[in-house]
Amino acid sequence: MEAKTKKSGTEKASRAQASTLLDPAILGPAVAGSFRKLDPRVMARNPVMFCVEAVAVLTTILLLRDVATGAGNPGFGVQIVAWLWFTLLFANFAEAVAEGRGKAQAASLRKTRTETDAKRLTDPDATLGHGFNGGYDVVSATRLKPGDVVLVEAGDLIPSDGEVVEGVASVNEAAITGESAPVIRESGGDRSAVTGGTQVLSDRIKVRITAAPGSTFLDRMISLVEGAQRQKTPNEIALNILLAGMTIIFVIAVATVPSFAAYAGGSVGVLVLVALFVTLIPTTIGALLSAIGIAGMDRLVRFNVLAMSGRAVEAAGDVDTLLLDKTGTITLGNRQATEFLPLAGVTERDLADAAQLASLADETPEGRSITVLAKEKYGIRARDMAELHAFFVPFTAQTRLSGIDAEGTVIRKGAVDAVLAHAREQAQDSNRLVAAGRGAALRTATPADPAEREILTIAERVAKAGGTPLAVAQDGRLLGVIHLKDIVKGGIRERFAALRQMGIRTVMITGDNPMTAAAIAAEAGVDDFLAQATPEAKLQLIRDEQAKGKLVAMCGDGTNDAPALAQADVGVAMNTGTMAAREAGNMVDLDSDPTKLIEIVAIGKQLLMTRGALTTFSIANDVAKYFAIIPAMFLAFYPQLGALNVMGLASPESAILSAIIFNALIIVALIPLALRGVPYRAVGAGALLRRNLLIYGLGGLAVPFAGIKAIDLLVTAIGLV
Amino acid sequence: MTVNGWIQILVFIALVVAVTRPLGGFMTGVFNGGRNLLSPVFGPVERGLYRIAGVDAKAEQHWVTYAVSMLLFSVAGMVLLYVLQRLQGVLPLNPQDMAAVPADLAFNTAASFVANTNWQSYGGESTMGHLVQMAGLTVQNFVSAATGIALAVALVRGFARASARTVGNFWVDLTRATLYVLLPLAFLIALFLVWQGVPQTLAGAVDATTLEGAKQTISLGPVASQEAIKMLGTNGGGFFNANSAHPFENPNALTNLVQMLAIFAIGAGLTNVFGRMVGDERQGWAILAAMGVLFVAGAAVCYWAEAQGNPAFAAFGVDGLAGNMEGKETRFGVAASALFAVVTTAASCGAVNAMHDSFMPLGGMVPMINMMLGEVIIGGVGAGLYGMLMFAIVALFVAGLMVGRTPEYLGKKLEAKEVKMTMLAVLCLPVMMLGWTAFAVVTDTGTASMANAGPHGYSEALYAYVSAAANNGSAFAGLSANTLWYNLTLAVAMLVGRFLVIVPMLAIAGSLAAKARAPASAGTFPTHDGLFVGLLVGVILIVGGLTFFPALALGPIVEHLAMSAGTLF
């Protein structure tokens, strides 16, 4: 995993595919795997191929009997039987190759799961600070139980999944994510989850173990990519029923032939009947079905997304509504100051000056952008806090204000209502009046004070334009408003338009007020938005959409996202998120990139499309096979039926042999398509269907006519029959 | 083929399309409950019937209850019909003193009429008295058709409803289908037929002396009333053995056109009911269009084959211009006979105005294919629609994934349960059609009944089982079917072909009704346009039709090829 470098997801995915389709390291074991999978207990999972195996065994026995008694035409029989077995091996090979790609990944993951030792604290309550006595036992990581508390120091591997209960550390998570840049993990908040197998680079932390041995994230990841736990997805199960049903129909169609032939005074050999049966039943899709499913999961893994079940991948294709967090997905993470809007009687420069002073020590991106804007617009240089003898007053969730207290002057900036309250308090302080009815006054729609009225008017204007207003006050005097603007990501509008064409509705989730949210939603081109979103509101939105029969996808990272993640049909938890979020979602994005939700949907759709395309192709193939085998089968007693030999195949034997060879080779020919998936473009269902029906429906009708004819020419030329 | 012939076919198609919407609108009203045009007349009757039967018209049924009600009703009808036949010798209204019907024939006939097949192993005028014809056969003509309509409506409700537990009330649907749809329409058609000269009397046969002085017994009876429902309910059991070829059943070209229209009217109207109930009439038109494509193709092939005539006759200097007139009535000619044959087998009617046995091999193959496809081309009243919808489920399951979503139809996800039930229903037909034929053609009892040798004899047996399992009831007349073997096996084929399709279909209805309905978006599979129609037709031909290719190759296809080479059977 060390060698794995991280690039943008798409680039990474395409590169990986190019290398693995022809990777000898995978092909070798896959060939061996194809033979191992002939075990009937394994084959029984696949009804179509199980039928093929049953008739292959039957014909092999009959062939051996014929050879022993010297009856029949063993040359022809040997070839038919051989191609029956090849059909099976090719089918197994497809599955083995698909699994092989996952196995290679699993092997490299397993290396990181080597035996580690854990420092289990004898006193779980001992704090890391001064007086930490460091009492711990060294135990094997595999003996850790949930609830144990361990100490992890710089250079140690984290022994198992857990929650940081004390301390801050930088952690290298390359083993899981492939990302070599370290990440910060700290107790409390949404960055507290650590994963077993990752390495602490600096500092030390106390970790409470949350996973039982053998069921850590890494363990699950290994078994997922390996496909060991692969369960058939609901759609696969249903498709298997359809294929099994069609197989039974063809059993009847073929089994009644001998009796019809007997009436006509002829007979049809078992080999020919078997050939007809095997070519008619949907072997192509039957052989490739599981490979398609495994490859779909694999595409997600390559994309650094772990789906906890195949069901989730299928659901991703079905998603009707995408809930996207505004910050980080639709807009760049940081808002930037773009304008100073002073009150009447205040110059823009004075406002800029005060705003800059208030932001000098503010290290948030918003704060820095205010300093920069003041400098750019008015050449006000950033001053040194120490020189001013100023104290920084940091932002808290209670005050919702930040600023400085310098000699004799108090500057605050923050949410408009908070600054208004602050200013009034300051003014009241100076007037030595009792601060009564403060909150009530604020809530009235039109405050008495003209300055307050003006501030509110400006703030509303800013909010309507999609910005966030920050009010500034100096010594209780309101100065004006800073316009903080959300920067919508480039190209996001086009992506939403593409999603709309695919019939997917996008809903932006934001903590902003409705006015701001509406403006950003309009700019980004989302279909709807949820403003002032609380976890409860989010959960309710998901339930409402689901009640309308829609499937909902969302991503989240915090503990309070967990209920919504669990409720959503596709819940993508960020790897940086809390353990609760990761448990609740049915996918984990190792890169913690919320934009990926869009690609996840595309991968889900591609998986389903591939399955549908190959099913259609497989069934359409039957037409040509009938025309190859029916005339050959009855020619002996109804020579007139030679007229149905529209392909002009050389002889009955060559026709039957060509059909069965085609039937086997088409599986091999389609393995790359099954693994890669059919090309996917974000267009409407109608356009997708037209294109796919043309290629895989009509193509499926036409290709075998050409293919069987070509094989027939070859078979005759070589003199196989 | 002549321009006149094609105009007849086109006029017929135009009339069918014209009646679809008005009938659909009326029937939607009937099955949504509430008042309609005929409520003032039949409302009191309807309420009275519910009171007598103790039915709570407001109480809806779960699909299982619905299915059990339907099965109980059918079993009761079958027993009653069997007893009526067995006791007809001692019952009144039997002016010709017909004897009791033999047990195997009575069983076959009871199964046949309850299953809406109306396969007749007997000659109507020489076997059944007026009481059996009226109180037995005609009653089943009404209620077996009404049952079919009720079932189709139940399935449509499955698509139309969301998160519902029930699919309707069988007793209410049955009553309303009979009272508001079948009775009034049958009444109108019967009046029309009487006006055109079809007998309607309770008198017995009339003896006439022919010009040669021979005595001829001319059977009479309540023909017009049975004729009307025979067509309208896609029953097909004629009053006379010659069925609609008999001048008393179908006297002229006009009655012929009206009869064909009556066969298709309700089935076509139900596609519109489907569209209206699911809230998008285009969905209904798409289904009708798929039926239309298959119908026109079949009519064209059949008409072409019949218009060619038999090449062997040319050797005797016979003018082939008239086409193949063997077994056809001169008052209908080739086009109207070929069209009638395609109509009657596309729908599961089974009435005939010409002998299908005498058709050219490929001409006779078209009716066979129509039935092998499961009679989804308009089909039996109700049965055609639910058969077609099941093919739509298969088509969407095969190809629906190609739009990148798991399969859905009209906002309903198609999952393992729907697929399982659909495949069960789809499986019934090939098992019955091919399985029984395979037995019949290699046993002495089976082959003894065949009138012809070679592929043609084979076609006769195949046609019989295909017709029975598809609940059509028409016959390749060469087969003498009134034997113990054929009476019993055909009865089994009819019952399986009807009820083993219906029960899984109702299970689908129940399962669909319980699902939430996802609104359509740009990402959902469009099921109202030409692409879907093409896909549906393709799936029907490949999944429904190809199964029978080996069987057809050994029957009509080889017969046709042999005929071209100069060998006849």
From TrEMBL, chain A:
Q: What topology does the record note for this protein and the membrane?
A: Multi-pass membrane protein
Record's Gene Ontology CC terms? plasma membrane
| Active site annotation, chain numbering | D325 (4-aspartylphosphate intermediate)
**Organism superkingdom:** Bacteria
Keywords recorded for this protein, A-Z: ATP-binding, Cell membrane, Hydrolase, Ion transport, Magnesium, Membrane, Metal-binding, Nucleotide-binding, Phosphoprotein, Potassium, Potassium transport, Translocase, Transmembrane, Transmembrane helix, Transport
Q: Where in the cell is it found?
A: Cell membrane; Membrane
Binding-site residues, ATP = D362, E366, F395, T396, A397, Q398, T399, R400, L401, S402, K413
Q: Which InterPro entries match?
A: ATPase_P-typ_cyto_dom_N, ATPase_P-typ_P_site, ATPase_P-typ_TM_dom_sf, ATPase_P-typ_transduc_dom_A_sf, ATPase_P-type_domA, HAD-like_sf, HAD_sf, P-type_ATPase_bsu_IA
Q: Which residues bind Mg(2+)?
A: D557, D561
| Residue stretches making up the P-type ATPase A domain | 133-226
This entry's Enzyme Commission designation comes to 7.2.2.6
Matching Pfam families: E1-E2_ATPase (PF00122), Hydrolase (PF00702)
> Quick one: where is this thing mainly located?
membrane
Reactions this protein catalyses: K(+)(out) + ATP + H2O = K(+)(in) + ADP + phosphate + H(+)
Positions of transmembrane segments: 46-64, 76-94, 237-264, 270-294, 626-649, 655-675, 695-720
Alphabetized GO MF terms: ATP binding; ATP hydrolysis activity; magnesium ion binding; P-type potassium transmembrane transporter activity
- What's the stated role of this polypeptide? Part of the high-affinity ATP-driven potassium transport (or Kdp) system, which catalyzes the hydrolysis of ATP coupled with the electrogenic transport of potassium into the cytoplasm. This subunit is responsible for energy coupling to the transport system and for the release of the potassium ions to the cytoplasm.
How the protein assembles, per its UniProt entry? Answer: The system is composed of three essential subunits: KdpA, KdpB and KdpC.
Q: Which family does it belong to?
A: Belongs to the cation transport ATPase (P-type) (TC 3.A.3) family. Type IA subfamily.
HAMAP family xref list: KdpB (MF_00285)
- Which protein is depicted? Potassium-transporting ATPase ATP-binding subunit
Query: Mind giving the lineage of the organism this protein is from?
Result: Bacteria, Pseudomonadati, Pseudomonadota, Alphaproteobacteria, Rhodospirillales
From TrEMBL, chain B:
- Would the keyword Transmembrane turn up in this protein's UniProt record? yes
Localized where? Cell membrane
Q: Transmembrane residues, as ranges?
A: 6-31, 63-84, 131-156, 177-195, 257-274, 286-306, 332-352, 359-378, 384-403, 424-442, 488-510, 530-554
Q: What is the membrane topology noted in the UniProt record heading this document?
A: Multi-pass membrane protein
- The highest taxon in the source lineage is Bacteria
Write one Gene Ontology MF term.
Answer: potassium ion binding
Q: Name one GO cellular component term.
A: plasma membrane
Q: Which UniProt keywords apply?
A: Cell membrane, Hydrolase, Ion transport, Membrane, Potassium, Potassium transport, Transmembrane, Transmembrane helix, Transport
Free-text function comment from the UniProt entry: Part of the high-affinity ATP-driven potassium transport (or Kdp) system, which catalyzes the hydrolysis of ATP coupled with the electrogenic transport of potassium into the cytoplasm. This subunit binds the extracellular potassium ions and delivers the ions to the membrane domain of KdpB through an intramembrane tunnel.
- What does the subunit comment say? The system is composed of three essential subunits: KdpA, KdpB and KdpC.
Could you tell me which HAMAP family the record lists for this protein?
A: KdpA (MF_00275)
Would you identify the family this protein belongs to, as annotated? Belongs to the KdpA family.
Name of the protein described by the UniProt record: Potassium-transporting ATPase potassium-binding subunit
Q: Which organism is it from?
A: Azospirillum doebereinerae
